[in-house]
């Protein structure tokens, strides 16, 4: 079976009429049919409507209509983003029957650009988790080793791209949920600067950390997706007026004059030795491409996880107050009074991690505890943000590992919530500071993927993508794909 | 209220929080979550040692100030689409169990 092309190649081929959108869609669906029984990336596939949409695009192209830069490209959408097609469940029982009456802004922008939404992918329930095992429905498996997790919470989106079936996907990243699975599965994954991409129509988890980002097989593809979805949206008051450069331009191969900082706190003994070695080799490669490497320090790195969880769980507890099985997505309930029906619906409808999060958030916000926990965390957050601003006065980007370990076996961490939280220790500081970061494949440890994290200052995606692209093109990791299990 | 360096969350604390959050828990869940939360908060208590007397809490990640738009009605979604999703309706209202008894 030939590999489905990259987004860039596919869009070019469809525009040039070298391949029809319909043929490209058939190829994608065929690959998915082969991989899905092993991986379970999707909660819902829209095979029929996607095929019809592809045929419609072919007709428009035949008439000479400009369909957009993503003409005919199949894209998977993490199921915490509203789509008019199918359901939007956030992988939770409390939204199992919910059908969204609108498309999220990112989805409508993709559609305007000619992309075809091929389905909704699996995630940890309400985007809380680092393995996709917290989905209320079923876990997703890592295409590189199906006994292991793909990472989370965007495990479904990443797995769909990693196996080579779907050229691109959207995920969300609140504490690493695009970057960590990308590192576990050898995809490119971007968390944009907070405010770069609209959150309208995205089911909120930690509203001051959440960002939608692209997942693809190459940096150029991720840059193209980011260009399409980024930009101010008047429906999201937290989206920025900052102009969006064309991220697909200026992806040159040379890094002469670029200053790369290596934060020592990201390389402690907590990080697996082989990952440390692999990432250091990638940093050496940046040096041979012309960059100057220097060691920097981010002393607040080890408290970032506490700051992150306290703030995010508090925001989550507020965000999830709206789920009541009352105005939409009804549930079968036995209770008779309104209050008891709320308690029953939320008790049954929310999974373990979501309940734990709501309790922790409610605790951090409650009277008598608010100052010591939520307010304190918010103050330390200011300190962390200042720390990142300061380090970027001396260097252009930071280079570091994405995760302290490679993809772990299914079930290995589900009994220990603190252990699960600690997988995010190298990704959460970035969301706390609000800056952008990317995970780009940089090798394998015992046949399991490892990602290199490039972190840029706020609004510095163009530089970040340039560095990641230069590294990628100097290696062959992006050409490696997993083998279909027998 | 000062936080001790070893916060302990009891099952009763969890039951109280659950009531505030309108989430029904089984007694087993209440005690499991109590030990989870104690372990997690124990680990997070390290932030208490940082000096933050003159540090403002971060409320706006990217420094945006109040964002407003003109108070003009916009046709965003036909009401029927929303009402169709409610389990019970009555004359263009969502019907619910009694709020006051």
Polypeptide structure, described:
- The complex is a heterodimer of chains A (486) and B (101).
- Chain A is α/β, with parallel strands linked by helices and 486 residues long.
- Chain A has 15 helices and 11 strands.
- Chain A has helices at 7-15, 21-39, 47-62, 105-112, 155-162, 179-185, 219-229, 273-288, 301-319, 338-349, 352-365, 371-391, 417-422, 428-433, 461-473, and strands at residues 42-45, 74-78, 116-121, 168-173, 188-191, 211-216, 259-263, 292-296, 397-401, 437-445, 448-455.
- Chain A has an 11-stranded mixed sheet with strand order 1-3-2-4-6-5-10-11-9-7-8, with helices on both faces.
- In chain A, helix 2 (21-39) runs antiparallel to helix 3 (47-62) and helix 9 packs across helix 12.
- The longest helix of chain A is centred in the C-terminal third of the chain and has 21 residues, at 371-391.
- Chain A is globular, with a radius of gyration of 21 Å.
- The two termini of chain A are 14 Å apart.
- By secondary structure, chain B is mostly helical.
- Helix content of chain B is 33%, strand content 4%.
- Chain B has helices at residues 11-20, 27-44, 79-83; strands spanning 89-90, 93-94.
- Chain B has a two-stranded antiparallel ribbon with strand order 1-2.
- In chain B, helix 1 (11-20) packs across helix 2 (27-44).
- Chain B starts with 10 loop residues before the first helix and ends in a 7-residue tail after the last strand.
- The relative contact order of chain B is 0.09.
- The mean pLDDT of chain B is 88.
- The chains are: A alpha/beta (486), B mainly alpha (101).
- At the A-B interface, helix 9, helix 10, helix 11, helix 12 and helix 13 of A face helix 1 and helix 2 of B.
Please outline what is shown here:
The complex is a heterodimer of chains A (486) and B (101). By secondary structure, chain A is an alpha/beta fold.
């Amino acid at each position: 079976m030939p590999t489905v092309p990259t987004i860039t190649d596919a869009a070019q081929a469809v525009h040039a009429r070298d391949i029809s959108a319909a043929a490209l869609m058939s190829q994608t669906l065929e690959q998915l049919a082969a991989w899905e029984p092993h991986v379970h990336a999707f909660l819902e596939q829209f095979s029929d409507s996607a095929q019809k949409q592809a045929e419609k695009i072919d007709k428009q192209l035949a008439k000479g209509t400009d369909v957009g830069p993503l003409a005919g490209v199949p894209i998977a959408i993490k199921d915490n983003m509203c789509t008019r097609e199918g359901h939007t469940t956030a992988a939770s029982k409390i939204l199992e029957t919910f059908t969204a009456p609108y498309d999220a802004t990112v989805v409508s922008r993709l559609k305007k650009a000619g992309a075809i939404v091929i389905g909704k992918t699996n995630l940890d329930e309400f985007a809380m988790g680092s393995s996709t095992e917290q989905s209320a429905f079923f876990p997703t498996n890592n295409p590189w080793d199906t006994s292991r997790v793909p990472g989370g919470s965007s495990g479904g989106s990443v797995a769909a791209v990693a196996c080579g079936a779907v050229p691109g996907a959207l995920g969300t990243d609140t504490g690493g949920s695009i970057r960590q699975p990308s590192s576990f599965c050898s995809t490119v994954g971007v968390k944009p600067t907070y405010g770069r991409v609209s959150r309208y129509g995205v089911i909120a988890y930690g509203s001051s950390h959440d960002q939608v980002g692209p997942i693809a097989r190459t940096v150029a593809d991720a840059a193209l997706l980011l260009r399409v979805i980024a930009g101010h949206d008047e429906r999201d008051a937290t989206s920025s007026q900052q102009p969006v450069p064309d991220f697909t331009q200026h992806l040159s191969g040379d890094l002469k004059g670029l200053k790369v900082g290596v934060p020592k706190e990201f390389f402690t003994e907590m990080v697996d030795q082989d990952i440390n070695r692999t990432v250091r080799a990638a940093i050496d490669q940046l040096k041979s491409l012309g960059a100057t490497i220097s060691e920097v320090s981010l002393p607040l790195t080890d408290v970032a996880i506490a700051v992150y969880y306290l703030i995010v769980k508090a925001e989550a507890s507020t965000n999830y107050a709206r789920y009541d099985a009352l105005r939409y997505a009804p549930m079968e309930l036995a209770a008779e009074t309104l209050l008891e029906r709320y308690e029953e619906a939320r008790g049954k409808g929310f999974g373990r991690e979501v309940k734990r999060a709501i309790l922790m958030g409610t605790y951090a916000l409650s009277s008598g505890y608010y100052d010591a926990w939520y307010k304190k965390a918010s103050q330390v957050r200011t300190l962390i943000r200042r720390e990142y601003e300061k380090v970027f006065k001396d260097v252009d980007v930071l280079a570091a590992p994405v995760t302290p370990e490679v993809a772990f076996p299914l079930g290995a961490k589900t009994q220990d919530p603190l252990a699960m939280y600690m997988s995010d220790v190298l990704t959460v500081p970035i969301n706390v500071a609000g800056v952008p970061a990317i995970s780009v494949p940089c090798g394998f440890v015992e046949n399991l993927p490892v990602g290199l994290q490039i972190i840029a200052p706020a609004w510095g995606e163009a530089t970040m993508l340039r560095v990641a692209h230069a590294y990628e093109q100097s290696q062959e990791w992006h050409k490696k794909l997993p083998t279909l299990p027998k | 209220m000062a936080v001790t360096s070893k916060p302990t969350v009891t099952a009763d604390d969890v039951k109280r929080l659950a009531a505030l959050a309108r989430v029904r828990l089984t007694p087993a869940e209440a005690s499991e979550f109590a030990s989870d939360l104690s372990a997690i908060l124990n680990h997070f208590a390290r932030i208490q040692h940082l000096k933050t007397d003159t540090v403002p809490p971060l409320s706006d990640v990217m420094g945006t100030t109040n964002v407003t738009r003109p108070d003009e009605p916009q046709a965003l979604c036909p009401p029927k689409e929303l009402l169709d999703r409610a389990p019970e309706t009555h004359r263009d209202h969502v019907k619910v169990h009694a709020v006051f008894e």
